[in-house]
Amino acid sequence: MSFLRIQNLYKTFGSVVAVNRINLDIAEGEFFTLLGSSGCGKTTTLRMVGGLEKPDGGAIYLGDQCLVAPEQNLFVKPEKRNMGMVFQSYALWPHMTVFENVVYPLKLRGIKGREAEKKVAEVLSLVGLAGLEDRQAPALSGGQQQRVALARALVFSPKVLLLDEPLSNLDAQLREEMRRELKALQQRVRITVIFVTHDQIEALSLSDRIAIMKFGVLEQVGTPEEVYFRPGTPFVRDFLGKTFLVPAKVTGRSDREVSVEVQGVTATALAVPSANVISGSNGFPVNGQNVLVAIRPEQVSLSADCRQDRANVIEGTLQSVLFLGDRYEYTVTVGSDTRVLVSPRSQGLKSGDKVFLDLKPEGMTLWPRDS
Q1: Which of 70, 170, 313, 336 has the fewest Cβ atoms surrounding its Cβ within 10 A?
Q2: How far apart are CA 217 and CA 124, in angstroms?
Q3: How many CB atoms lie within 10 A of CB 72?
Q4: Rounded distance, CA 180 to CA 11, Å?
C-alpha cells in the first residue's frame, strides 16, 4: 500500500499546463526524486504536495487522509499536513539565531520550554550542529545553513520531508559531501523524502526511485538502474547521461536476439538481446526496418586490435585523445558519424589509429529510427 498517493494531479498557470494529470505512489521511508529540466513541473508538483500551491484537479493522499481534492472542495492547510520542507534558498530568518530558527516550527505547534529545547538539541546533534545554537544564521557557511534548514524541517518529526533543490547553492565539493550526509540522515531517521532536482548525479546517487518529468508529464518512473540502463522513452534515453547511437537495419530475429547491420560501416553485424528491444508504433521491428542501437559510453570498450571471434565489434578511426586526469576522452569516427567515448586508461592509442569498439550486448537497446 502506498504511503503518499498522487492521483490525476493537474495544475495550470494561465494557458500553460504545468502538471498534466500525473499519478504517483510513494512508499513509506522511500527517497523519491522528481527529476527534470527547468519548467518541467517538478517544483510545482512538490509545492502542491506541501500545500503551497492548490491544484486545479486530482487528489493527494497521505495514508488514508485526503489532503487536497478540488472537485470535493477539500484542502488541508500546509501546517496541518505534517510535512517539513527545505527550500532552495533555505529561507532562514537572518535576525534569528540557529536555535530560534529551528525552534520556530515547535512554537507554531504549541511546544515550548524544556520539551522544545530537548527536541532542538536532538535535531541539531543529528545534523552535526551541536554547540552552534547561539550562532546568527548569516554567520554560518553555506553547508551549515543547509543543515539548519534541514533541522528546522525535521524538528517536529514530520511524516514527509520535501526538498526543493537544497544542494544547488553549494559549491561542487560541498555538494558532493552533503549528498552523502543527506542520504545517511534519511536512512537514520527513516523518513519519506520527496526530492526535486535537475542534477542527474544527485538523482541517481540518492534515490530509491526517480520520476523523470517533461512538460508536466511523467516520462518514466523507476529505480536509478532502470531509468539509466532501460530508458522507456527517447527523451529519458537522451536526457540521462550520454548515449552512443548507431544507425542500423534489421537483418534477422530469433526468440533470443535481433540481428542488425550497422549502416555506413562495411559488413558490421550486431546482436541485440530481444529483451532490450523497444517496440515502436508498428510493433516489434521486422527485417529491413531502420533502427537505432543505443548504448552508454561506459558499456563500450576501445582497443587497437580485434580478434576474429569477437562479436558486436565496430571499426572506427580515432580522431583525438584528451587526458582528463582520472580518465581519457576519445573522439572516434564510425562511418560518417563522430562519437565521444571515455576510458580509464589510454592503452597507448593515438590520433589517426584504427580502433575497434566492443559493444556489450547487455548494454545495448534497440529503438525505432523515427524515435
Answers
A1: 336
A2: 38
A3: 9
A4: 34
pLDDT over 90 percentage in the chain? 64
Among 238, 261, 286, the domain-final residue is 238
Which pairing describes strands 16-26 and 300-303: parallel, antiparallel, or unpaired?
Answer: unpaired
pLDDT per residue over 76-131, tens digit each?
Answer: 999 999 999 998 887 888 999 999 999 999 998 999 999 999 999 999 999 999 99
Which helix (H) or strand (E) element contains residue 294?
strand 290-295
Q: What is the domain range of residue 276?
A: 242-368
Kindly report, residue by residue over 255-291, the tens digit of the pLDDT. 899 999 998 777 688 999 999 998 766 677 788 899 9
Q: What pLDDT does 150 receive?
A: 92
Nearest to 32 by CA among 216, 162, 159: 162
The pTM of this model reads 0.90
The residue behind cell 587526458 is 323
Beginning with the edge strand found earlier in the chain, give each strand of the sheet holding 244-253 in spatial order: 269-273, 257-262, 244-253, 290-295, 365-368
CATH number at residue 287: 2.40.50.100
* Partners of 150 in the β-ladder: none
Distance, CA of 81 to chain centre: 26
First to last CA, the chain: 36
In the numeric block, the cell 514527509 is attached to 160
Any bridge partners for residue 20, and if so which? Answer: 10
